[in-house]
Amino acid sequence: MNLKIAVLPGDGIGPEVTLQAKKALYAIGVVYDHEFVFEDALMGAVAIDKTGNPLPEQTLNLCLNTDAVLFGAIGDPKYDNNPDAKVRPEQGLLKLRKELGLFANIRPIKPYKSLLDSSPLKREIIEGADFTIFRELTGGVYFGEKKLNDAGTIASDLCEYSEEEITRITHLAFKAAQNRRKKVTMVDKANVLETSRLWRKVVKNVSESYPDVALDFLFVDNAAMQIILNPKQFDVILTENLFGDILSDEASVITGSIGLLASASLGNKKALFEPIHGSYPQAKGKNIANPIASVLSAAMLLEHFGLHKEAKKVYEAVEKAIEYNVVTIDLKADSKFGTNEVGDFISNVI
Amino acid sequence: MNLKIAVLPGDGIGPEVTLQAKKALYAIGVVYDHEFVFEDALMGAVAIDKTGNPLPEQTLNLCLNTDAVLFGAIGDPKYDNNPDAKVRPEQGLLKLRKELGLFANIRPIKPYKSLLDSSPLKREIIEGADFTIFRELTGGVYFGEKKLNDAGTIASDLCEYSEEEITRITHLAFKAAQNRRKKVTMVDKANVLETSRLWRKVVKNVSESYPDVALDFLFVDNAAMQIILNPKQFDVILTENLFGDILSDEASVITGSIGLLASASLGNKKALFEPIHGSYPQAKGKNIANPIASVLSAAMLLEHFGLHKEAKKVYEAVEKAIEYNVVTIDLKADSKFGTNEVGDFISNVI
Ligand SMILES: CC(C)[C@H](C(=O)O)[C@@H](O)C(=O)O
Ligand SMILES: CC(C)[C@H](C(=O)O)[C@@H](O)C(=O)O
Predict the structure, then answer these.
(1) Residues of B recognised as catalytic
(2) How far apart are CA B7 and CA B285, in angstroms?
């Protein structure tokens, strides 16, 4: 197979972890005789520094004309702590999600057997947990109108959802559930929010086309608690953009490290793959960031193109790294291996 | 001291747990020679059933003319699963918060020594954790304009904040921190939301009047993770309404049961005290609900009126109940004690 892949390393640890994902894909290409052509482009704070724009035209065009996008991380403290900044790195990512129509962000959560003791949660709580979060990615409060009055004393963000936006991701979530344990849990705040009530209504309607899948509802406050109390109760969690952002970072504790979690962002045409962790600026350039989430994003990319054998190979290589303790310090405090060494190990095993 | 207390038992388990709080307050009154006069009133689904209004005029007037409000719980599944209901129980609570000007909801999180093994989190993670969440309670997306178009296909909720709303709770949070470990963590989503950027700016300004208190910032997704990874890092968490709702339910896992967590809602004049748990309709009338959160709300009420000795007595009685295993099944699966027995034990110890 020939694939043209746009690579957006982004900010902080983005470049160093993305490099390991590229190495893994390169190794897969050699072993299975595929041609993966990578083209790097700027996005985020680095793009602002060089071009003034967090998503330069050129980057967007590249992404629109490739088969898939591999993305690293975004964000820089110099913008986070400057409420007056007019241009921010995150705008690049949000715009890219919107322009590529990536309405569904899919985040699988499943602890590795050999890491069951690395979680802050007790082993008996997490052993056997296996769920996937379907987070809506191009709507809600992320994209609604933002206002600040002239005096700078009143601000607002609009959270908006349409039936159509809810319907399309709901179908994806139910289809995924059909291939899993056949349960969808919709998370919302329908006792307070109008948008949540619309979600509830639409999801209920769509669910009627999937009589083999059970549907239940949880308020987001309760869900944030249940994910920790009893993560095994979940199969597919379906939720809106902001709740999905919060719950998936929270759920990362089940696996022991956010450095292990990958995600796929899908739409009608394009697909983007990224670790769920952020740019972790304190670790930048120190060769300590965990590259596994990025490598697993590459595996999700392979799966997306039907390369299941190849994806499995990557998963196995990652499992081997974990089993042999070739991991970064987030997983083993006294580890001697860095980002590069873990990446090398994985691509060598492939 | 003479105190007139409005009691709003509300829905589900509300009445049975609130009864135990009243018993504890009554016992305190006898021992310390205070006169607490209780007056019950309707709010929530029960109020809708009887009057059509989740917060009847009479209830609101009572609350406006008492020294404090003791509240149980609100919510009923028959409304949760009916997106078309025009009147909902929660509107009663939200209206009451607004009318009483209860802009700060304060939720202390601290595990009991003898319950350190009841949490899904490992003992070493939670031992020593001790923080308080200051949740803004009368602004944000809870109170912004809600819209649904005529076709019922597009919904929106507006999240709005003003400098003034942010300033007043920020002062409370910093004052609390001065009497604690002198650290405030502001939780927001300033990389995406305009309201969060206003929060960040205002909180930074206010913090300059408290040079002895350290201030840091966390994005809400990261905070949801950090609360589980390392809860000991927090002293005072300051956040907006919806994030506070999610994070405080999540943080309840640190204590082993949400049935242990109380909260105080304060404003310029009035004060309301309530457990953070919900109406838990499945347990209603079964004498299995944990009354401790409600009893602890009563203790927070005593503290609010400067009755520190008395509050301490309640805390000690609760600790004794926990120590002697006189607890409900959420804390000890094979417990023989119910809501009433735990309440009796506590008021007898007092
Ligand atoms: C960087 C930020 C805008 C982003 C988000 O909130 O979506 C990130 O947290 C994520 O989850 O991908
Ligand atoms: C019942 C509901 C409206 C309420 C809220 O979201 O504020 C509850 O969850 C709480 O935390 O007090």
Answers:
(1) 142, 189, 221, 245, 249
(2) 18
Residue by residue, DSSP assigns B218-277 as EEHHHHHHHHHH-GGG-SEEEE-HHHHHHHHHHHGGGGS-GGG-EEEEE-SS-EEEEESS
Contact A193 B245 (CB under 8 A): no
Residue ranges of the binding site of B for Mg(2+)? 221, 245, 249
- H or E, element range at A162: strand A154-162
Nearest to B278 by CA among B299, B263, B265: B263
When mean pLDDT is compared across A4-13, A76-85, B254-263, the lowest value belongs to: A76-85
CATH code, A1-103+271-350: 3.40.718.10
Residue of minimum CA distance from atom 2 in ligand 2: B90
- Reported as a single tens digit per residue, the pLDDT across B225-260 is 999 999 999 999 999 999 999 999 999 999 988 999
Q: Considering the domain A119-255 in this protein, what is its CATH number? A: 3.40.718.10
Tens digit of each residue's pLDDT (9 = 90 or more) over B21-46: 999 999 999 999 999 999 999 999 99
Please tell me what DSSP assigns to residue A30.
Answer: H
Residue with tokens 């954790």: B129
**Is residue B273 less than 8 Å (CB to CB) from chain A?**
no
Q: Which of B2, B24, B59 is nearest to B294 (CA)?
A: B24
Q: What is the DSSP letter of A1?
A: -
Nearest Cα to Cα of residue B251 among B149, B61, B106: B106
Q: What is the pLDDT of residue B80?
A: 81
Contact, B249 vs A222, CB < 8 A?
A: yes
* CA nearest to A243, candidates B245, B315, B285: B245
Helix or strand run (H / E) with residue A4: strand A2-10
Give the residue extent of every domain in chain B.
1-103+262-350, 119-255
